[in-house]
Write a structure and sequence with these properties.
Blueprint: H1 3-18, E1 20-21, E2 33-34, H2 35-38, E3 43-46, H3 57-63, E4 72-73, H4 84-88, E5 95-99, H5 106-119, E6 128-131, H6 134-137, H7 148-155, H8 162-167, E7 172-176, H9 203-212, E8 220-225, E9 240-246, H10 249-260, H11 264-272, H12 275-280, H13 284-296, H14 310-330, H15 339-345, H16 347-362, E10 368-369, H17 370-375, H18 381-384, E11 388-390, E12 403-406, H19 409-425, H20 447-461, H21 468-477, H22 480-485, H23 487-490, H24 500-511, H25 517-529, H26 534-545, H27 555-566, E13 574-576, H28 586-589, H29 591-594, E14 599-602, H30 613-618, E15 624-627, H31 634-647, E16 657-660, H32 664-671, E17 681-683, H33 696-707, E18 715-717, H34 725-735, E19 742-744, H35 751-762, E20 771-773, H36 784-792, E21 799-801, H37 812-816, E22 828-830, H38 838-848, E23 856-858, H39 865-876, E24 885-887, H40 898-907, E25 913-915, H41 922-933, E26 942-944, H42 955-964, E27 970-972, H43 979-990, E28 999-1001, H44 1010-1020, E29 1027-1029, H45 1040-1049, E30 1055-1057, H46 1065-1072, E31 1081-1083
Parallel strand pairs: 5-8, 5-9, 6-7, 7-8, 13-14, 14-15, 15-16, 16-17, 17-18, 18-19, 19-20, 20-21, 21-22, 22-23, 23-24, 24-25, 25-26, 26-27, 27-28, 28-29, 29-30, 30-31
Antiparallel strand pairs: 1-2, 3-4, 3-9, 10-12, 11-12
Helix pairs in contact: 1-5, 10-11, 10-13, 13-14, 14-15, 16-19, 19-21, 20-21, 21-25, 25-27, 26-27, 31-32, 32-33, 33-34, 34-35, 35-36, 38-39, 39-40, 40-41, 41-42, 42-43, 43-44, 44-45
Length: 1084
């Protein structure tokens, strides 16, 4: 049987298995959703940005979600594709790991990608995909040996020729979903090497060797897992780490609109009014839970009926699940209003289920065996199958043992809190043995408050916060409104026994004690569940009146301030600490909020910040930490930071980058003393010279500190610091034995002599510098001989910036000769404003013919003219050229250069970005360029054409490019004369389904509004455009209606830029009013 026939059979079976998504709705009487139509892509990033494994993953991810908005986005379909950099070495990742918290969509993503492979739209480089979920591998008989072929045959018995598949050149992908559900240990240290797919071994040995690459080295592996389980995977075995971050705001809208149709946007608008609930919707499983409630009870979509807190959401979900499962089992139609009767008749089972949840939560157990269920008398699966998901899949071969878990971690936490409520409310019921409260099971009116106090004490002791949500649910269940929903379980609610005022008072009291800031913040969320808003409202009033900085806040009020700041929609770029600090403990209480910001600013010696180490605790890893206007009195205080960092192991490396503006001597003392060795980026800002004069004594201290063996600075930035040749000499000396790999000396007074002295260190065999920037140093042709040694060194030199050295041009041909040297590894060369002429281009092109490393070339604002570009193009047309970025703005080009450039576009397999702005190309030149853009082999992704004297005359050709070029994603046409007529022609291409454009910039094109209708009509059917920029045109209020339609109906648009147009205040208000219910943001 041929490989192609085997592949066809396999795809047919996978199509059957993965054509629908597993949704919990299918266990609540619903139908399984189509994978193709109902899957909503979550935000996927490359690298690890989320919570560490030792924290409560749901809460930590929730608190830090906005912080991670700067992550490098990667498309799910591209996780096994090489990035442009990797493609240079023809390298694709072999082992990819995707991590994500519970309910974030890991299994849904694997299902969608398998379905996409079957349909031929993704992962086309693989001939076979074999999903092997860890939860099913864990059910294999203990001690039983398998070879790889027999293991695969157990899962895919319809394929009888595994030896043929595994010995053929076919590429295989193994998908191991759910490492956190694995019941055996992946021991990479003691597991023996196993290279034969025909020799038997334990399943764990086969898995480990597939990951290592010893078994089937050409096969790829995809592993998904919750964060805490990844510690067993050696870092060197992972080629790419990705993380599912959940839903961004526009993805939440997409989910609800797909699930609930026309009601989706109304639901999103209502959820935004309950900020905590809306933020929790970053978890797809939580979105599903909310959708189930609203889908089954449409009346709740009305604002007055929407759930008001987290506990109410879960309570209504619980009731719906029980009612619909009862209807399914007994055949009688019941409404949500009949839920209490169902709860009453099934109270014993629900109590046992809640006790299972509680006991598991206390010992942090999330997976339960059939024996566990039996011990809790949970043998009737029908009632709770909407609440507990069976891990076993359909048609999974010979394995029959089953394991169970709650559908989401938060559901288990809710049931644990429900167990406490039942135990406190119903006489002679289960007692909480682990809490050792005597009155449980007695129906004592104070039992719930006593249990709450004990649970609160246990929760605030937890360093990981694993009881935080449990405590929130317990507070919410104490409310009379939620207890009335559960009367079938609890009996009649007695108003006189309401203990919530006592609980509120107790939380206020405990907030004034010395607690962890994160636990304090959770107590504020508990107050929100109890509907006590007094602390938060006081802080909001102080912020509204601007009187916060003049008030002395209590510790509890500081925690409330942290809560207000965390739940606000403020920009998270800079957090200015000073206005919020009025007591010594204030900064510590604000630390959970500080972790969300990209930069922290502290402006002066504040009398209440007695412990500056608190500032470091607040500083997130990899963020900027700025101490501005420091006086000498701070020097001794800040010296504590170095000792603190050295003594506290978990803070190592936290102080990643520090910028000091006014006291560099203190900077040197603090950050390079013998006790502090964590700084990686040392930067003196470019505007430093305005404030201070750095004498030689300060520089001497700096050089000494940088030479210290304790110093681990990797990036040294001394831009615009008036450095003289003598300073360059000292820098050269320290480079001979330093970890510095990036050196920025832009805009100093080094000159040729400074470069010569610097090269003495750079040429050392022990020098680590790979990136050198010496722009604006008044260099001449004499320095090029010295710079040549930088290019031809055996060390890896990947980046050289010589911008704004106007007298260097005559020496550049000598420098260019280094590009053809076999040692040259340069990837980026910056030569803006260097007086380069066509004659220089001849030398540059000659050496590029044999260069295999240069990927980015920046030649803006030189004198290349058309002849120079023609010479460059002769090198770029070579099949071995790897250049993917070419910037030629302002190089005195005309339409004559467009022919050679078009030829490059037709033949180059690497050029992905071309910038031709501020050249006189005109319509004739653009038409010629379009021929290359329409070529089948064109791979260009970004084309920048600012101020190129283009008119509507070339727009028909551009429209043809948009409709046929499948790679072009960014088109910038700023400052041309397209006018409305030209945009109308462009719209003909935008409306085509084949158009792949994602960013279109039409600034300064004298657009008056007629084009808005064309854009609306075109983009309503477009599924690709993400950013549309119409800034600096002549749009008026007459365009508002069309722009509103554009924003509403173009589902892919995320940003519409309309700055500096002619809108009235009323028109701007109309446009901004749309944002509340839209995916797109409108910037005016």
């Amino acid at each position: 049987m041929s490989i192609s026939h085997l592949k066809s059979i396999h795809q047919e079976e996978l199509q059957r298995r993965y054509s629908t998504l597993f949704e919990y709705a299918s266990r609540l009487g619903g139908q399984r959703a189509s994978t193709n139509k109902n899957f909503t892509h979550p935000w996927l990033t490359e690298g690890v940005l989320g919570p560490a494994g030792h924290t409560h993953e749901v809460l930590e991810a929730f608190h830090g979600f906005n912080e991670r908005a700067e992550g490098k986005t990667i498309q799910l379909a591209d996780i096994f594709n090489a990035t442009p950099t990797e493609q240079l070495g023809t390298c694709r990742p072999r082992v990819v790991v995707t991590r994500g918290i519970a309910g974030i969509g890991k299994t849904a993503c694997t299902n969608w990608l398998i379905h996409s492979w079957v349909s031929g739209s993704s992962l086309t480089q693989f001939d076979f995909i074999f999903p092997l979920p860890f939860r099913e591998l864990s059910l294999l008989p203990a001690g039983h040996l398998y070879n790889l072929t027999s293991l695969l045959h157990s899962y895919y018995p319809y394929l009888d020729c595994f030896e043929q598949i595994l010995t053929s050149p076919s590429r295989c992908l193994f998908i191991f979903d759910g490492l956190d559900e694995c019941q055996f240990s992946l021991d990479f240290t003691s597991c023996p090497e196993h290279c034969s797919f025909s020799e038997p071994a334990l399943p764990v040995c086969l898995v480990v060797n597939l990951i290592r690459g010893h078994l089937l080295p050409c096969a790829s592996v995809w592993i998904t897992s919750r964060p805490a389980a990844l510690a067993c995977l050696p870092v060197h075995c992972i080629d790419r780490m990705t993380e599912i971050q959940g839903f961004l705001d526009w993805q939440k809208k997409e989910f609800f609109c797909r699930r609930l149709g026309s009601c989706g946007m109304d639901i999103v608008a209502q959820l935004k009014k309950q900020r905590t609930l809306y933020n929790m919707c970053y978890i797809p499983a939580f979105c599903w839970l909310v959708a189930i409630i609203l889908e089954r009870s449409p009346v709740m979509i009305e604002e007055k009926c929407m759930p008001q807190n987290l506990t109410e959401v879960y309570t209504k979900f619980f009731m719906l699940a029980v009612v619909y499962q009862h209807h399914r089992g007994h055949g009688s139609q019941r409404s949500v209003e009949d839920a209490n009767e169902v709860l009453r008749s099934n109270s014993a089972t629900i109590q046992n289920l809640s006790r299972l949840a509680y006991d598991g939560l206390i010992v942090q157990k999330l997976v339960f065996s059939r024996q566990d269920l039996k011990e809790y008398n949970l043998e009737r699966l029908q009632l709770y199958q909407g609440l507990i998901s069976e891990f076993v899949a359909e048609d999974n071969g010979p394995f029959c043992r089953k394991a169970h878990s709650f559908v989401h971690l938060t559901v288990q936490e809710y049931f644990a809190a429900l167990f406490v409520l039942i135990s406190c409310s119903v006489p002679n019921k289960s007692s909480l043995f682990s809490l050792q409260i005597e009155c449980f099971g007695s129906g004592c009116p104070q039992a719930l408050f006593i249990a709450f106090k004990k649970a609160c004490q246990e929760a605030i002791k937890s360093s990981s916060g694993h009881l935080d949500l449990f405590l929130r649910f317990l507070c919410g269940l104490a409310l009379e409104c939620n207890q009335r929903l559960l009367q079938g379980l609890l009996g009649k609610v007695k108003e006189k026994h309401d203990v919530t005022p006592q609980m509120v008072k107790y939380i206020h009291k405990i907030l004034e004690t010395d607690l962890s800031p994160d636990r304090c913040l959770n107590l504020l969320y508990c107050l929100k569940e109890l509907r006590d808003n007094s602390l938060v409202q006081k802080i909001k009033d102080l912020l509204a009146t601007g009187s916060l900085s003049s008030c002395s806040l209590s510790s509890a009020e500081y925690s409330a301030l942290a809560f207000v700041l965390e739940t606000s929609d403020d920009n998270l770029d800079v957090f200015k600490l000073n206005p919020y600090i009025s007591v010594p403990d204030g900064l510590r209480r604000l630390s959970p909020v500080a972790k969300l910001y990209r930069r922290l600013d502290f402006y002066y010696d504040h009398p209440f910040c007695d412990n500056p180490c608190t500032l470091i605790i607040c500083t997130p890893s990899g963020r900027d930490f700025c101490l501005e206007e420091m006086d000498s009195g701070w020097v001794e205080k800040i010296l504590q930071i170095g000792k603190f960092l050295n003594n506290v192991e978990e803070q190592k490396g936290r102080l990643h980058r520090c910028v000091i503006y006014r006291n560099p001597e203190a900077f040197v003392k603090v950050l390079f003393n013998a006790n502090s060795n964590n700084l990686r980026v040392f930067q003196l800002p470019s505007n430093l010279i305005r404030y201070i004069h750095l004498d030689d004594s300060v520089w001497e201290k700096l050089w000494t500190a940088l030479k210290s063996p304790n110093c681990k600075v990797k990036t040294l930035s001394l831009k615009n610091c008036k450095l003289q040749p003598r300073h360059f000499k000292e820098i050269g000396k320290l480079l001979t034995n330093s970890p510095i790999n990036e050196l920025d000396l832009n805009f100093n007074y080094g000159g040729d002599l400074g470069v010569k002295q610097l090269m003495e260190g750079l040429n050392s065999a022990t020098c680590s510098v790979s990136k050198l920037r010496i722009a604006g140093n008044d260099l001449s042709d004499e320095c090029c001989k010295d710079l040549l040694t930088f290019l031809t060194s055996k060390q890896s030199r990947v980046h050289l910036c010589l911008n704004d050295n106007r007298n260097i041009a005559t020496g550049l041909p000598f420098l260019f000769s280094g590009l053809s040297h076999p040692n040259c590894q340069l990837k980026e060369l910056h030569l803006q404003i260097c007086g380069i002429t066509a004659k220089c281009c001849e030398e540059l092109a000659a050496n590029l013919h044999s260069n295999r490393s240069l990927t980015k070339l920046f030649l803006q604002r030189n004198y290349l003219e058309d002849r120079g570009v023609e010479q460059l193009c002769s090198a770029l047309q070579q099949p071995y050229s790897v250049l993917h970025t070419l910037q030629l703005e302002g190089c005195r080009l005309t339409s004559r250069c467009c022919g050679p450039l078009a030829a490059v576009l037709e033949t180059s397999r690497s050029l992905s970005k071309l910038s031709l702005g501020w050249n006189e190309l005109g319509d004739d030149g653009m038409k010629v360029l379009c021929r290359g853009l329409q070529a089948p082999g064109c791979v260009l992704q970004t084309l920048e054409l600012e101020s190129c004297e283009l008119t509507a005359g070339c727009c028909k050709n551009l429209a043809q490019v948009l409709s046929s070029n499948l790679s072009l994603t960014t088109l910038i046409l700023t400052d041309n004369d397209l006018e409305d007529k030209g945009v109308a022609l462009l719209s003909l291409g935008l409306r085509q389904p084949s158009c792949a454009l994602q960013t279109l910039v039409l600034q300064e094109n004298r657009l008056k509004g007629a084009c808005c209708k064309d854009l609306r009509q075109a983009l309503t059917s477009s599924s690709s455009l993400i950013t549309l920029d119409l800034s600096m045109n002549l749009l008026t209020d007459q365009s508002v209606t069309e722009l509103q339609g554009l924003a509403k109906h173009c589902l892919s648009l995320c940003t519409i830029e309309l700055r500096l147009n002619k809108f009235s205040c009323q028109g701007k208000r109309k446009l901004k009013s749309l944002e509340c219910g839209l995916k797109a943001s409108i910037n005016l």
